[in-house]
Write a structure and sequence with these properties.
- The protein has 90 residues and is mainly α.
- It has one domain.
- The chain is 72% helix and 0% strand.
- The protein has four helices and no strands.
- It has helices at 3-16, 24-56, 59-67, 73-81.
- The radius of gyration is 23 Å and the shape is rod-shaped.
- The protein starts with a helix and ends in a 9-residue tail after the last helix.
Length: 90
């Protein structure tokens, strides 16, 4: 999935900066660049998707939808979102 990003990190570290691929420094720098870019890319997509969701679904409508299922608000949200708390003992 992120092969193109790994190729970019390899090119940047080993070709542009001229660090040896067999050295620990080169491998560590390659890993740092690759993971930093990957995290920033994933954060960008997550914030973009959440921004779209927040703009199309107002908070009040979502809250009313989640809590109108049951009479008790604590029971409405888990029943609609299918969340189960394994630590809850009843």
């Amino acid at each position: 999935m992120f092969d193109w990003l790994q190729y970019f990190a390899d090119w940047l570290i080993y070709s542009v900066f001229g660090v040896s691929a067999q050295s620990h420094w080169g491998q560590a720098l390659n890993f740092f660049v690759f993971d930093t870019l990957k995290i920033f890319l994933l954060l960008f997509f997550i914030t973009t998707i959440m921004g779209i969701v927040n703009s199309y679904f107002p908070v009040e409508k979502v809250r009313n939808f989640l809590f109108d299922v049951g009479t008790d608000p604590k029971q409405g949200m888990p029943s609609t979102s299918s969340l189960v708390n394994p630590l809850e003992t009843k």
